[in-house]
Design a protein that fits this description.
Immunoglobulin-like, 3-stranded antiparallel β-sheet, mainly beta, single chain, globular
């Protein structure tokens, strides 16, 4: 089973969400697409992005106009996984 630890932060200078993921399972890293839902203040709908998991540790930068309020991995629960996601401090 996929086990993921994720931390996200807002990079104000780059105007991007930074998402750092680590696969923790003992088996080889999984390769698969996974959705990321991003909620931004003053926007009615959540934005959904798709990232590709392939390495033990990966970092993603997702361009945004404003700082996100929340980030959710696999918001539709399509992937069988144990995931922990937390916000990191500002950059």
């Amino acid at each position: 089973m996929l086990k993921v630890k994720a931390r996200w932060s807002w990079d104000a200078a780059a105007r991007a969400l930074r998402l750092d993921l680590e696969q923790l399972q003992a088996a080889e890293p999984f390769r698969m697409p996974i959705e990321v839902a991003i909620e931004v203040a003053d926007e009615a709908d959540r934005r959904t992005e798709r990232i590709e998991l392939r390495d033990r540790r990966q970092s993603f930068a997702i361009p945004l106009d404003r700082e996100p309020r929340s980030v959710v991995l696999d918001p539709r629960d399509l992937v069988l996984m144990d995931a922990l996601i937390a916000a990191a401090g500002p950059r």
